[in-house]
Give the backbone structure.
Amino acid sequence: MKIEFIKDESTKTVKVKVNGEKYGELIFDTDQDAWVLWPEKIDDGITYYDDLQETMDQIKFELEHADD
């Protein structure tokens, strides 16, 4: 499984791709002071951490272990 995080400095978002296909988008929520993942397949956000690297590491871990 190939997981990519593509930062867009102009919109301050991070696109998340899995195996070359768009999985979702990370957007920083200033109200929660945390990064929120908005997956393409569900209409709800998943809140993570205020640290982007920690958030990306956690998402990568969850995706890699989703079938365990």
